[in-house]
């Protein structure tokens, strides 16, 4: 059988390309660079130790709502936007008290975490119409807690198809809204 006239040449051995210079060389790939994520990856916002003085969840309530990204202040707990969200509207419910473990929270704090979670879900549904939620508390570094020294519950709105190719192949999440706009919309809708 004769080779097709325009058949590509088959190479016996493929050489690996060096990544040097690819950021400056146009090619067939559209790259989405997210250098702001390096702050989180490098741990710049993580406390150096587990003390209250180093804990961002202890210092956030001292800031204005806008600066701290606080959506709601309760009696024993508050609701804040996650600085590194999985999805737009990713909220955290945190007790004001510096406790690490769910078993260390008081009955009043546990009740308020649950009540604020329920209200947050209703508010996010009203503002953003998600199809579902992931709710969870990661206890300890090994369980995925970014800040294990201070108890916090995640409320992550989910939409059908929100897990697209970007997180899978590019380790990048496209967020269509800036935090200030999300915080304002949620705070304004809070009962």
UniProtKB/TrEMBL annotation:
Task: Name the segments for region: Disordered.
Answer: 1-22
Residues making up the signal peptide according to the UniProt record: none
Q: HIT domain: from which residue to which, for each copy? A: 56-165
In this protein, the active site sits at 152 (tele-amp-histidine intermediate)
Per the UniProt record, one Pfam family is: HIT
CDD domains hit by this protein:
FHIT
Which residues make up the binding site for substrate? 82, 154
Q: Which GO terms describe its molecular function?
A: ATP:ADP adenylyltransferase activity; nucleotide binding
- Motif stretch (Histidine triad motif): 150-154
- The reply on keyword Transferase is yes
Question: What is this protein's record name?
Answer: ATP adenylyltransferase
Q: Which lineage?
A: Bacteria, Bacillati, Actinomycetota, Actinomycetes, Micrococcales
């Amino acid at each position: 059988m004769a080779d097709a006239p325009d058949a590509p040449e088959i190479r016996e051995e493929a050489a690996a390309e060096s990544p040097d210079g690819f950021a400056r060389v146009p090619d067939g790939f559209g790259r989405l660079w997210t250098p702001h994520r390096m702050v989180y990856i490098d741990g710049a916002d993580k406390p150096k130790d587990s003390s209250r003085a180093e804990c961002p969840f202890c210092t956030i309530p001292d800031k204005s709502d806008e600066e701290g990204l606080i959506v709601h202040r309760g009696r024993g707990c508050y609701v804040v936007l996650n600085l590194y969200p999985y999805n737009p509207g990713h909220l955290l419910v945190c007790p004001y008290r510096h406790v690490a473990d769910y078993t260390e929270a008081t009955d009043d704090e546990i009740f308020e975490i649950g009540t604020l979670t329920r209200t947050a879900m209703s508010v996010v549904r009203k503002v953003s119409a998600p199809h579902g939620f992931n709710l969870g508390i990661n206890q300890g570094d090994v369980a995925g807690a970014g800040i294990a020294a201070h108890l916090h519950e995640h409320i992550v709105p989910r939409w059908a198809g929100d897990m697209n190719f970007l997180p899978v192949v590019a380790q990048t999440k496209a967020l269509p809204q800036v935090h200030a706009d999300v915080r304002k919309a949620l705070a304004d809708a809070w009962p």
